[in-house]
Automatic annotation (TrEMBL):
One of its GO terms (cellular component) is cytosol. It is found in: Cytoplasm. It holds the Pfam family ParA. Component of the cytosolic iron-sulfur (Fe/S) protein assembly (CIA) machinery. Required for maturation of extramitochondrial Fe-S proteins. The NBP35-CFD1 heterotetramer forms a Fe-S scaffold complex, mediating the de novo assembly of an Fe-S cluster and its transfer to target apoproteins. PANTHER family: CYTOSOLIC FE-S CLUSTER ASSEMBLY FACTOR NUBP2, NUCLEOTIDE-BINDING PROTEIN NBP35 YEAST -RELATED. This is P-loop containing nucleoside triphosphate hydrolase protein. Belongs to the Mrp/NBP35 ATP-binding proteins family. NUBP2/CFD1 subfamily. ATP binds at G25, K26, G27, G28, V29, G30, K31, S32.
Amino acid sequence: MSAQGETPISRRLSKVKHIIIVCSGKGGVGKSSVSVQVALSLYASSPNTRVGILDVDLTGPSIPRMLGLDGHPVHQSTDGWVPVYADGGEARLACMSVAFLLKKKDDSVVWRGPKKNAMIRQFLSDVRWGELDYLIIDTPPGTSDEHISLIEHLSPVHSRLSGIVVTTPQAVALLDAMKCISFARTVSLPLLGVIENMSGYACPCCGEISNVFSTGGGESMAKRENIPFLGTLPIDTELVTLLDAAETEQEDDKPTGDEVHEGFRLLGR
Ligand code: ADP
């Protein structure tokens, strides 16, 4: 660390204005899909907004697949790793994930804490994020080694950090979401709010929402804990189709910015 308290990570992230950590208590509640939707909404919010999405769900990385970037190689430059851009030439939507570093996409990552910690440090210090308005970080479910590493490594830029908690309406998910809230309090991570995903079912024909499970649990939890409630997302079959069908593009037919806007029209709404 230099005299001014600078670290390789704070230097690398010096032009990143906001860093948003997305957490969930449980797996499968839609944390990665919400991370992607948050990133795409911010990307689409203005033609100049620059967004990065970092996938630190090391054992279950799914962001590249959701963005149609599966199998893309990561290039190493003299100044570090070049992130993969999901919007081709516009280069306003940057992505980095351990999935880009695996030889085969179904290879598994079986690492103990120290190796995960080293990987996270490298993602934060070695990726050429450049100038970003927002860096969205998708984390594994729960509050694990990865979360502790992130908070420790990002301590020099703590004033730019915030978090979002994703939950589903069911009591078990809410119980685990409370653990994320309590973790955030312990590490003084300000929470932007709670998102209740899979809240009701959106009929593909008429869009009407029916409540297959309970609903509103996320909102009451947010109220009770004095945290903003950011809203609900229904179960949407079109969303699943879009996320699952995101095909990998070849290098020379990467989508243009306009195609990304159109392709992710639904996700970014
Ligand atoms: P997590 O990151 O919490 O493990 P994912 O984002 O990978 O969860 O989502 C798990 C599965 O649920 C994925 O197949 C995703 O497409 C689907 N999914 C997430 N949110 C919704 C939603 N609102 N409507 C329908 N399917 C969803």
